[in-house]
Amino acid sequence: xxxxxxxxxxxxxxxxxxxxxxxxxxxxxxxxxxxxxxxxxxxxxxxxxxxxxxxxxxxxxxxxxxxxxxxxxxxxxxxxxxxxxxxxxxxxxxxxxxxxxxxxxxxxxxxxxxxxxxxxxxxxxxxxxxxxxxxxxxxxxxxxxxxxxxxxxxxxxxxxxxxxxxxxxxxxxxxxxxxxxxxxxxxxxxxxxxxxxxxxxxxxxxxxxxxxxxxxxxxxxxxxxxxxxxxxxxxxxxxxxxxxxxxxxxxxxxxxxxxxxxxxxxxxxxxxxxxxxxxxxxxxxxxxxxxxxxxxxxxxxxxxxxxxxxxxxxxxxxxxxxxxxxxxxxxxxxx
Length: 335
Description:
By secondary structure, the chain is an alpha/beta fold. About 40% of the residues lie in helices and about 15% in strands. It holds the Pfam family Bac_luciferase.
């Protein structure tokens, strides 16, 4: 098994019978658990107008989790920059870095993380997605020492080392990450179709920068670990329900394992779900080791981030432990 860093994407998903408070409390428990296991980082993602996601105020949640942990890196996977002015994000993440030095990551996405009506309600115009490259550069400027003579400056933020990542779910952002010489994180846990093409584009076009001398790719995949393959297959049903809800726009809290909605049997729905599962790994420690080893070898990724949509918290924590054992000793890198 190739030893690469392990990280976690936690969406603070509300489970059936729970609420936003329990989702946030569970996120803290997950962060504390994977920190003890030696995971590299835990990220949270910005979503809006989604009733069963509790990570809406992403920077606030990052600060809360950072305050409840000691060493693991905490960050955004990502901040949807079209929803914000670069100055506000520089100030927010400058504040986080000041409070928790050397532990904050800033992953940036170009999508709104919501529907268009909600995006308009966030008080940013619809053209901001097209200005994403310019906004990223402006954000870099706010963090730079070179901005000290500007009329508008970010405090705290200026002169701080907050690593910026470019996120992608298609090929678009691969070119920007390569052009700016920034690390690239791909959302293959829900949009795997263009993953391999995107990372090839990124590698082929990468330009070294002060931030990064060579390409660095982190892939986010779904992982469900259990004592046996049969148990993992049962736990997988919660993720299948989640994907069905996304595809049919009938979102519900994360459901217990073993139940399936009737719409899953619709051929078009099942085919769409199966396409979303192409970067999903589930099984025993031995099965995960075999399948993830092949995935890492084929793609040459530098870091593995995992999303684990498991209803039962204890089973979810156990899954992270099983994955850690399957991967062997985690190699921590400074990025």
